[in-house]
Amino acid sequence: MELSKRQQQIIEIVKSKGPITGENIAEKLNLTRATLRPDLAILTMSGILEARPRVGYYYTNKSQNKIITEELSKYIVKDYASHPIIIKNGVSIYDAICTIFMEDVSTLFIINNKGDFVGVCSRKDLLRASMMGEDIHTTPVDIIMTRMPNLSYVTTQDKVITAAQLMIEKEIDSLPIVQHKQTGTVEIKGRISKTTITKLFVSLFKE
Ligand code: ADP
């Protein structure tokens, strides 16, 4: 966020004289309180200044980066979950390819007959299998999927930023959102993808 010259002047005044009332800031700038109102609103909303009733404005001493980091930490995975596309183990590679096309996703999540999350199969996994000359009609997806203990996932209460970091670190496009079962296994509750996070990023910009 780029601050105007007047907003920077306000910050300097509050830094040296705070806590200080809006009235007194206005006096120092030879302006009216009403003229300053939008600037003070921007500075408090962005977290640079804080206002205490009957005390006045004071400088929070938070860098803009810290403010952004704190803001981003509030976004929780469960609020940005999308629908996961799940197939059962034993399904053929051919059927997995059909599902990828029909559902228009990049990754399929695979479960066993108990509903436990057991694998992930991406577009490239399917392409590789087809190119390697596997009999895609008879070979089950289990043969080519990435499996436990190599699966990455997040839980509903994780931060969106944690999911983003994990996707970058593992070089993957999406993550399943899981819930731990009493049996020690996990079940899939949703999905979070790079697209979802990009949309969130764009929506913040619009706000
Ligand atoms: P693509 O292969 O279409 O580029 P990804 O980049 O998402 O898709 O996947 C790259 C590799 O990582 C694939 O081999 C896939 O099986 C694996 N993979 C994808 N998601 C996960 C995950 N959540 N946990 C572990 N491995 C994954």
From TrEMBL:
Q: PROSITE patterns, per this entry?
A: CBS (PS51371)
InterPro entries the UniProt entry points to: CBS_dom, CBS_dom_sf, CBS_domain-containing, DeoR_HTH, HTH_11, UCP026546_HTH-CBS, WH-like_DNA-bd_sf, WH_DNA-bd_sf
Q: Which SUPFAM superfamilies match?
A: CBS-domain pair (SSF54631), Winged helix' DNA-binding domain (SSF46785)
Q: Which UniProt keywords apply?
A: CBS domain, Lactose metabolism, Repeat, Transcription, Transcription regulation
Q: Name one Pfam family in it.
A: HTH_11
**Which PANTHER family does the entry mention?**
CBS DOMAIN-CONTAINING PROTEIN CBSX2, CHLOROPLASTIC (PTHR48108), TRANSCRIPTIONAL REPRESSOR CCPN (PTHR48108:SF32)
Instruction: Read off the lineage from the record.
Output: Bacteria, Bacillati, Bacillota, Bacilli, Bacillales
Q: Does the keyword Transcription regulation apply?
A: yes
CBS domain mapped to chain residues = 80-136, 145-207
Q: What is this protein called?
A: Helix-turn-helix transcriptional regulator
Instruction: Determine the domain of life of the protein's source.
Output: Bacteria
